[in-house]
Amino acid sequence: SLNKLQKGDKIYVIDDKKATTTFVVREFRSYNPQVDASDVFVSNDGKSHLNIITCEGVWNHVSKSYSKRQVVFTDKE
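RE: above sequence
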C-alpha cells in the first residue's frame, strides 16, 4: 500500500525483539532507473532514516522493468 502513503504518515517497524521503531514520511521522489540515484542512501544529518524504494510507471515487457523508481523518504520519530 505504498501508493496510499502521504506526507506525515507513520510507518512502524517491529524488530525480532518486538521493539517498535516509528518513521514519519517526509517526501516522495521519482527516479529514472537509468539515472544514478545513490543519493537516496546518503544522509549527513546524524538522524536515522528509512527510505523505501519501489517501482512505478509503465511496465516494459522487453526490459522486464518499470519506467520509474518511487522512493519514500522517512525520518525516525
